[in-house]
Amino acid sequence: MSSTGNLRPLPFTVDxxxxxxxxxxxxxxxxxxxxxxxxxxxxxxxxxxxxxxxHAYYNFEFRPDDLxxxxxxRSGTTWTSEILWAMRNVGxxxxxxxxxxxxxxxxxxxxxxxxxxxxxxNPKVKEFLSLFxxxxxxxxVVLQMTKWHKGPRIIKTHLQIDLLNPDLLDTCxxxxxxxxxxxxxxxxxxxxxxxxxxxxxxxxPDYAEAFMADQVLFGPYxxxxxxxxxRKNHANxxxxxxxxxxxxxxxxLTKLARFLQLDFTEEQLKAISDHASFGRMKSRHERxxxxxxxxxxFFRKGQTGDWGNAASGExxxxxxxxxxxxxxxxxxxxxxx
Length: 337
Ligand code: PPS
Prior knowledge:
alpha/beta; Rossmann fold; three-stranded antiparallel β-sheet; 9% strand; globular; binds 3'-phosphate-adenosine-5'-phosphate sulfate
């Protein structure tokens, strides 16, 4: 994919965040950021490599047999992508022991989260250059490899829908998973403690403040959710909640299968649910089988309601005000327990 050519123009700009603001974010605890870019007017903070790839993401061509998963970070992406893969490969679940999740599903954001260079000693870059000796690594190894993937593809992204190709929903089935903002915030904070890419080196109240101020990567949280929620009646969008998956996974799998027009026996649905259970996924991950280079703590608690263990009464009151304010123009209702 070239970053130039006959591309649909971006209906937004991608602007460099000022050094002053970046240093404020660094002193807030976001120590990994030397540079940040921001989409406007949507105000999504992203790593700088997004800047020259924004056209490629916005113009990325989906295909009718794609399955696309869109989530705000820490909302159940890994869990749901494992479910989607399992639904498509129900007779072959043991493959998950051998083939990494990164090779079974594709996280397209990697090109700006961890941009590759041609001289990287990285198997993906080597594979890309051996397949496409003329290929330009800086145009996104993952995007280009995904473009050439024969399919059917399972593609996941944390980019909000308005930053993706406007033809997405008219082209292929898309699943959106939302998780309540309190637990997303707690999970993001803990992830920041173990993340090399987006480390956070301060205390939880500071993180929560940044989250509510829409300053964390991929924010603003509410716009992300609302962009999907307003399209929830589109025949190609299936909107799910993490909390419902926790409460009744078989019920949620049944609805998801109906959306995907797949028929499963009860036994098969149970096998999919077990395959994607927190314990089984965590154990595959720890054995190095699930594809995220083993990050201890990636599968942390997998529960609803952890906010109660992390936040003071004062912080909870501030968060509740923020939720109430942002819920005024929507009928989205989250479960917090
Ligand atoms: S990421 O980093 O954005 O891709 O994270 P994401 O996968 O979206 O979300 C991570 C949180 O989901 C929990 N998780 C699960 N919960 C229940 N069941 C299963 N199978 C499962 N797999 C992952 C994971 O533990 C993170 O939540 P917290 O609250 O931090 O434990």
